[in-house]
Amino acid sequence: MPLKTTILFFMASTLLLFSCNNKEQQMQDQMQQVMALQQMNDLATAQYVVTKIIKANDNQAWYKVGDRKILMSCKATLTAGIDLSAITPKNVQIDDKDINLQLPHAKLLSVNIKPEDVEEVYETEAPFRDPFTSGERNALAIQAESQIRNSVDSLGILETGEKNATLFISNFLTRLGYQKVMIHFD
Amino acid sequence: MIKVFTRCLLLVAGVLVIIFVCQRMRLLPSFKDIFKPAPIIIDSTPILVKEINNLSQLITITAYSEIVVDSVKPFKVPVFPGVTIPIHSFDDELVLIGKGKVLAGVDLGKLQEKDIYTNDDSVSLTLPKAEILQVITNPSDFETFNEKGNWNDNEVIAVKVKLRDKMIADAMKQNILPKASAIANMMMENFLRSVGFKKVTVQ
Hints:
The complex is a heterodimer of chains A (186) and B (203).
Chain A lengths: L2 H16 L9 E31 L9 E16 L8 E4 L2 E6 L3 E6 L5 E8 L8 H17 L1 H4 L1 H19 L4 E6 L1
Parallel strand pairs in A: 4-7
Antiparallel strand pairs in A: 1-2, 2-5, 2-6, 3-4
Chain B lengths: L1 H23 L22 E27 L2 E5 L2 E4 L5 E16 L8 E4 L2 E4 L4 E7 L5 E7 L4 H21 L2 H19 L4 E4 L1
Parallel strand pairs in B: 6-9
Antiparallel strand pairs in B: 1-4, 2-3, 4-7, 4-8, 5-6
């Protein structure tokens, strides 16, 4: 190849590589956002912190040679409580210093798995396999989140939420001057 | 010759009909599914309860947010010792779409004796200051729109944490705390009226 052509080819390649964009040299983020506000009326009364091991083995596809295995740990914070907006005068019966209050049953208010609470503990892949991408790791964490949501009934957080709500509201009404506080859930 | 050709044709047609019928009856997998990537299913492992906490938080407002974050790790070639040239065509890029919730309200656990004053059918209540109670950005709230290059766990977490911080900052710009405080006052006022008080002051 003549020298002139080589130089031209080199210059064109360099220009192509450098002119694709003008991003900053350091790792940078661009963000765009949309926001909406909603009024809530929830009294959070119980919080459970739970942990789960995420274990997966990618060996299902017959045409891929070798396995990929991953082990992650996940911590989730579950919050339960009651909807205070359901308390209206018709749910309250007052007889001098005695009060009878009917509350709605406790519900799961939130499941919170912080990004830093999902940690990769171990990963291995066969020589012909790619490592797990961040998207694949997130997909596994989504499955764990779903399993945690489905376990709410067996964890007993709703019962604890109702017990704590009874305790808090009883104490609060006692401080307001009531002597006998009766609370039941319906 | 024609007879042999006709027989072959009939044989092929017969085999195709059998395959078609078997696929319809789900006895054979579809051709398009042969190279379909199999989903990775996680094992069912136990869920362990580490902590149980009692709360008394009044959640009065939720800010829903959706943010697109485009994160770039520049690719640099060392030319001389201490001198590098960035080559942007080889940059690693991660584009995440993140949805999240910022929950704000009042922690009623911080109420003290002096904050409640009652006299017959009158009550005066001073609520604690509103605060951000939770910021929820679960794995299911994130979608990886584009991933180019290698992004390890810590780098992805750093991007997600930045996104969460942006959600909090935006919620604060929307005056979430004064709004949470105003709603908490209104809620407690309604509650106190519901439980029999005629003159209610909540601040």
